[in-house]
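[recover] target loaded
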């Protein structure tokens, strides 16, 4: 299992990628959105 710091870094990276101008393609945006949401769930579950 990854450490919390690794997961947070990945989450922040994906957030930045979603906000960049290069991420205009809707399919790619949706994929990253789902991945970002999954990482958020992992962080929430570990802190319950």
């Amino acid at each position: 299992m990854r450490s919390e710091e690794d997961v947070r870094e990945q989450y922040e990276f994906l957030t930045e990628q979603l906000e960049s101008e290069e991420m205009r393609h809707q399919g790619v945006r949706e994929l990253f959105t789902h991945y970002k949401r999954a990482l958020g769930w992992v962080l929430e579950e570990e802190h319950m």
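[recover] notes: The mean pLDDT is 77.
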